[in-house]
């Protein structure tokens, strides 16, 4: 009983112990907050990656792809059909996107992806990143009349959602106005060319200006952009817009605009082809790797343009098959079944985690390193406890001698110091866990206050792609951190406790 009384007395009267408690508290709280934020970032990143990639990606090694997707889907069903919920073939090719912004022509490198809208919606969550509510329900490559989001629909805080006022005019109404202007420009250009020919006479080998307005009208004069569209194209947000320093989006392209795509054709000799598409929607996964490079078009159209579709049988070649597994299925099991059924020299089969393995491993390594470095804060607090206890043993031998002369055993005296260390650990770890969880609960409000005080955004959404700081608290993490802090506090008090327990009472009293 006297051990507890002395522990509480030392805890109340020795203010130097407060420094150790604060050190343990700060270390524990920091670890709790960092782990919660890193877990939130990792979850959000994985969710966005998985939103674009399906559970299993079945790929053909050859750039030319493989024929007969239905036959391949049948073989996949034989190997793991009881674990699969849906499949969708996909074709892809590197391409160049060209469009006009004012009088300037802008070119971007893209990955042109051909998908089947109906089946792809069942195997991928890419629909939730589209800007038209109806396309989020059912993807369509037809241009909608209007109704595109004028705010970032993914923002959890509507007050901080990105404004997209140009989207108010997207759709058919925008296309009609743009088409009327394009027709007028084409008419004026035709008149100018007619006057030029009349003035200069006929000239052989005349080269038309490829950047002239009339030259931009595809499919000849019979195409009316005010009433017709080309094949639909869904474009990444980073390809269609740029963001200023205030975080507002400015669009080069909106749904209803036409773009030209230059792509490689398949054949023995490399040959470039081009086609016009109409932007029907924009998608924003908030992963720059995807938003700045992916453009989706109808699968059959891409196969036809690249010469990958047989006009007699109607069959086309594909590069990959996206596979969605049933809920609760172990993805590695499906992957291993398919790898056994298909020749690994011809096909690459991987889960979505395998596809982004290096990125996920880097985040995991960063979290581990941060935990090790931040745990050193608690280790520093442990050395503080060690120094305090040694100071007590050295400066207060008379107190120890009196306790032993009154009948206290060596183990009892050692128990006083061990209990004192345990008490410091319990108070510091408990306060740290409580403070850390409280900080995590109000971390976004704290970030808003700091932003207001500094006059600049602490967590800009245009940099981190999140409207708020994501946090996830794993109940085991605070518990393990608290246990670690307790162990350090107790271990720091072991050596002073042993020295105090071995101190002879006569020697202790004679030293005063």
Report on the structure:
The chain is an alpha+beta fold and 512 residues long. The chain folds into 2 domains: 2-48 and 359-510, no CATH class; 54-355, no CATH class. It is 51% helix and 16% strand. The protein has 19 helices and 11 strands. It has helices at 2-13, 16-52, 69-80, 117-123, 133-137, 172-200, 237-240, 288-291, 299-305, 331-341, 352-355, 357-395, 397-405, 410-441, 443-454, 461-464, 476-492, 494-502, 505-510; strands at 56-60, 84-101, 104-115, 231-236, 241-243, 249-251, 258-265, 271-283, 294-298, 320-325, 347-351. It starts with a helix and ends with a helix. Mean pLDDT is 78; it is low at 203-220.
Helices, strands, pairings?
Elements: H1 2-13, H2 16-52, E1 56-60, H3 69-80, E2 84-101, E3 104-115, H4 117-123, H5 133-137, H6 172-200, E4 231-236, H7 237-240, E5 241-243, E6 249-251, E7 258-265, E8 271-283, H8 288-291, E9 294-298, H9 299-305, E10 320-325, H10 331-341, E11 347-351, H11 352-355, H12 357-395, H13 397-405, H14 410-441, H15 443-454, H16 461-464, H17 476-492, H18 494-502, H19 505-510
Parallel strand pairs: 3-9, 4-8
Antiparallel strand pairs: 1-10, 1-11, 2-3, 2-7, 2-10, 4-9, 5-6, 7-8
Helix pairs in contact: 1-14, 2-12, 2-14, 2-17, 3-10, 12-17, 12-18, 14-17, 14-18
């Amino acid at each position: 009983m006297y051990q507890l009384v002395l522990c509480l007395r030392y805890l109340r009267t020795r203010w130097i112990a407060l420094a150790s408690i604060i050190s343990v508290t700060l270390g524990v709280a920091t670890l709790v907050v960092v782990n919660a934020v890193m877990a939130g970032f990792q979850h959000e990143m994985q969710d966005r990656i998985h939103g674009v990639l399906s559970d299993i990606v079945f790929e053909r090694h050859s750039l030319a792809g493989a024929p007969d997707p239905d036959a391949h889907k049948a073989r996949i069903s034989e190997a793991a059909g009881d674990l699969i919920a849906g499949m969708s073939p996909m074709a892809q090719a590197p391409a160049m996107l060209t469009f006009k912004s004012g009088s300037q022509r802008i070119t971007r490198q893209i990955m042109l992806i051909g998908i089947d809208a109906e089946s792809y919606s069942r195997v991928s969550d890419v629909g939730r990143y589209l800007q038209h509510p109806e396309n989020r329900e059912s993807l369509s490559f037809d241009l909608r009349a209007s109704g595109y989001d004028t705010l970032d629909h993914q923002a959890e805080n509507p007050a901080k959602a990105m404004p997209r006022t140009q989207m108010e005019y997207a759709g058919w109404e925008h296309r009609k106005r743009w088409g009327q202007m394009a027709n007028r420009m084409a008419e004026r250009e035709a008149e100018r060319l007619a006057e030029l020919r009349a003035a200069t006479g006929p000239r052989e080998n005349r080269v038309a200006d490829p950047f002239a307005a009339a030259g931009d009208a595809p499919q000849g004069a019979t195409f009316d952009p005010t009433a017709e569209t080309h094949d639909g194209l869904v474009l990444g947000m980073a390809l269609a817009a740029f963001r200023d320093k205030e975080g507002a989006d400015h669009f080069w392209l909106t749904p209803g605009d036409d773009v030209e795509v230059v792509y490689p054709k398949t054949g023995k000799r490399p040959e470039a082809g081009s086609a016009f598409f109409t932007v029907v929607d924009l998608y924003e996964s908030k992963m720059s790797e995807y938003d700045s490079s992916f453009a989706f078009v109808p699968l059959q159209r891409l196969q036809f343009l690249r010469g990958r579709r047989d006009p007699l049988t109607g069959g086309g070649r594909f590069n990959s098959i996206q596979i969605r597994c049933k809920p609760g299925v172990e993805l590695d099991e499906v992957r291993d079944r398919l790898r056994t059924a298909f020749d690994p020299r011809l096909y690459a089969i991987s889960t979505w985690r395998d596809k982004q393995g290096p990125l996920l491993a880097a985040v995991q390594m960063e979290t581990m390193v941060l935990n090790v470095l931040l745990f050193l804060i608690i280790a520093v607090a442990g050395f503080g406890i060690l120094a305090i206890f040694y100071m007590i043993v050295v400066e207060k031998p008379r107190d120890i001698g009196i306790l032993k002369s009154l009948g206290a055993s060596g183990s009892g005296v050692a128990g006083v110091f061990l209990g004192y260390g345990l008490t410091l650990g319990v108070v510091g770890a408990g306060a740290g866990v409580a403070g850390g969880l409280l900080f995590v609960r109000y971390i976004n409000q704290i970030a808003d206050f700091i932003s207001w005080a500094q006059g600049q955004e602490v967590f800009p959404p245009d940099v981190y792609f999140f409207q708020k700081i994501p946090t996830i608290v794993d109940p085991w993490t605070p518990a393990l951190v608290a246990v670690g802090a307790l162990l350090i506090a107790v271990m720091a008090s072991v050596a002073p406790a042993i020295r105090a327990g071995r101190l002879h009472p006569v020697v202790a009293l004679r030293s005063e």
